[in-house]
Design a protein that fits this description.
Blueprint: H1 2-8, E1 25-29, H2 32-40, H3 43-46, E2 51-53, H4 63-70, E3 76-80, H5 85-100, E4 106-111, H6 114-120, E5 125-126, H7 132-136, H8 144-151, E6 154-155, H9 163-175, H10 183-187, H11 189-193
Parallel strand pairs: 1-2, 1-3, 3-4
Antiparallel strand pairs: 5-6
Helix pairs in contact: 1-2
Length: about 200
Amino acid sequence: MASSMAASAEPDQAEPDLYDYGVPRVLVCQDPDVAAMLLANHVHLEAACPVLAMTPDAVPLGPRLLAALARTPEATVYVLHDASPAGLRLPARVRAAVSGGGVRVRVTSLGLVPRHAMALGLPAGRGPAPSARALAGLPAGLLPREVAWLERGRFAEVAAVQPARLLRTVLRQTRGGRPVRGSFRSGLRELRDSGFLTWPAV
């Protein structure tokens, strides 16, 4: 799909002078179709945040974009990913790409994590049980029941989130929203400390 391809490319291909300035935030999506949906709904304009999609072989953060992020104090790369072993390892992969580019920029996950999927009542798929190597790279903030869920081959996709809810969450988190109150907030404190933000309570 053309829009997915556009979401995967660095914006400086279309805007050659864009990265001559500082960029305060970038959103990297695991799913190109999710990135295309966010672009179609003008999230990149409302949040002043380039929306990029992962490619099979590379993190879409080129040298010019990293330099633009480095010019902005407290710049952040947000990562939107599935609740799956590959998705949960993606923030660390992005973090490695950022540090490998020689800049110091915060990398924060927006989810999903299994707890998000359970709280939102998302349909969970089931595939082969992941290998021990795949599970070894999971973030430390996951609860034992979440790890057990993943060990059974369960996964949930960002694409299953109701679009209006997804748009609200992405806009609130990238523009700086208040944390969720109550027990849901308390239960996710450790996960947020590991770099994961909360989704809206249901």
